[in-house]
Write the structure tokens for this entry.
Amino acid sequence: MIDIDELRRDASAAHAGHMPMELSGSEIIALLDRLEAAEKDVILKEQVIDALGLELNDVAKEHDALRAALQHETDCLEAANAKIKALRAKITEMEKQEPVVYQRLYRDGSGTEDITDLPDVFEHQRPLYALPGAKGE
């Protein structure tokens, strides 16, 4: 950075007539004032740029965190959809299965120990399946 104070001293000395210069001392002092103002403006702008850079870094970190969270949610959704698809396929297979055995029923609907693998053996019977959920079980 330019030493403004030193230049001011030199300009004041020239203005007092101690040094020969092509510019008058007041002209040099006016230029120094403008130079000092420009340097202060540059410093202020550098501070603003630094602050904006920090803010941009914070925003970028937040953006990355949100992107990671969104990816996690997407992965969870895909996993859930795959599980739903597998469960639907399993249900479809369970609904297609045939009864393994038939259980004799009393008139009140309670079952007995009598079981057969032949349909229509008992007057009142209930089909039993290997997998739960088959045909409304």
